[in-house]
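Subject: complex prediction, re-run

Hi both,

The earlier run crashed halfway through, so I resubmitted it with identical inputs.
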Amino acid sequence: MIPSRQSFRPIQRVITLTDLPQEFSFIRRHFSKLAGPAALNLRDDAAVYTPPQGRELVIAADAMVEQVHFLPSDPPGTIGRKLLRCNLSDLAAMGARPEGWLLTIARPPGVTEEWFAAFSDGLLQDQKIFNVALMGGDTTSTRGPLVLSLTIIGSVLPGQAIKRLGARAGDGLWVTGTIGDGALGLRALQGDIPDPSGYLAQRYHLPQPRVGAALYGLASAAMDISDGLLQDAGHLARENHLGVTIEATSVPMSEAAQKCGETWLKTCLTGGDDYEILFSVSPEQEKRLAKNPVVNTTTGPVTVTRIGHFHNTFSGAKIIGKNGEVLNFSSPGWSHF
Amino acid sequence: MIPSRQSFRPIQRVITLTDLPQEFSFIRRHFSKLAGPAALNLRDDAAVYTPPQGRELVIAADAMVEQVHFLPSDPPGTIGRKLLRCNLSDLAAMGARPEGWLLTIARPPGVTEEWFAAFSDGLLQDQKIFNVALMGGDTTSTRGPLVLSLTIIGSVLPGQAIKRLGARAGDGLWVTGTIGDGALGLRALQGDIPDPSGYLAQRYHLPQPRVGAALYGLASAAMDISDGLLQDAGHLARENHLGVTIEATSVPMSEAAQKCGETWLKTCLTGGDDYEILFSVSPEQEKRLAKNPVVNTTTGPVTVTRIGHFHNTFSGAKIIGKNGEVLNFSSPGWSHF
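This time it finished cleanly. Structure:
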């Protein structure tokens, strides 16, 4: 094909090809500050990462969608942090240490520069807290809601990843921290619950992933609670072909959650957004925990609580009240569909 | 907090907790067949992956949005494959071999089971072609367009990742395959160009990533062409603080592209969607290529073509016509914003 100048459309605007394209300058403005050594200054097609010698990698991906997982009115500084923390929680549940992360953004035209500046500043704070750095990603446009997708890479000593499979009948069911704050926080933000201290809203916006939780050798199986305690306990039981019974009176609740009163118990037990670790413990290991029900994490020690036990009946999860009666809910938890 | 049965809403429907939740069964139906050993049957919070000993990892992430990167009417079997191939192309440009991938899906209610069945069947075909397996991912709902985000993990011998930085003044500019087919294919699908054989449309739907291209030691710098030859050549020049001149008459075009005529040259050179590798070659290495302008890849040998050269003037990319005149375009390529 022989080109001729006449075949081209007239120049509409002058383009200096040494200028950065819009996408590149957007990335530099907001994401260069997050980039770790593997990111190659976010200038290449891919990151180059030397995995830590003698370790396995643990890799998870999670997406968050505006109007589904967060609201346009949520503080932008917390939205990215929450997504990062949800992914960190997946690593924590498997006993892995964070190594790096990648982010793709489908960006609607209405999201401002100020929004992204606050978004990435929040992420920078969390990178420092959890000792992790950005490896790469992609930005694209969309006419729909903002969609953020994050892939996190962590590492663990070979064979030490804690899986969902491994619980046995007779094991106790334990959780880190307190349950229900995140779900109540959402309802507080919606105006349904008073939250004078802002504690619940803060727990909703910024869950506390239990990164570095020293569960290897202690937990026989583990997962993080994102979709509601009852539903996620059901997953854990089902994966192990067991049943699990949770005593509602044992489920640890924060002071703020307790103040909400009994009518909100269902929200606490099925609402999700906890990002605590749910794990099974053999009777032998339970003796250790009974003496000192605390587990160390990267961000400090966390109290752990026995909330139930596994049994041989393949029946999923049930919750019983103070008189041993089964509590029934219309839905066991959050559905992504 | 002491629960009492009265505080719960009446049972709306019976839930058998041993049943799979909707999200899990969706994943099993469509994605279990793609899962490799690292995926742990897609049942855990994260994948566990043992990186190949003595190699570095190369990691890229790309998102595709309905209405931006593909149309709802596009064949579902090709949409996932195209996204996978775009990511494989990023690995190929850095000389990396694919290891595994993760996918997040933000799914609008209108996308059917049949659509996802065809989508994942297509991915299965490509997994066999490119010897790669799914590691994990996430599905969520959205009220907006379908958004797919893919993270790919590859590996390379230490220090052998080919980067964008490394071209020198005097190096030649080379490309694999042919340029413009993808961009013309889109216009053909839009009815603007005849495409009797369907070749162009097929190149748009299923680009051919040059996985395994043996460029180490040959290319001084490389990237893949996704946003248009002119724009991407400008990126390569800028990263190296150089200028690059492309001779339009040297740019390799397929027979189908040549048949479209000169009026479509701009589309070929700036339209993007090529997923060919653009690379710089030193004069010494060019002697090798001059004798045999072919590079081996995983899917067979590919012809490579010299289309221009780098020079010391930091001026981005320009394209000259057959009489040495500079061809001006209104836009150098595709913008993601």
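The radius of gyration of chain B is 23 Å.

- K.
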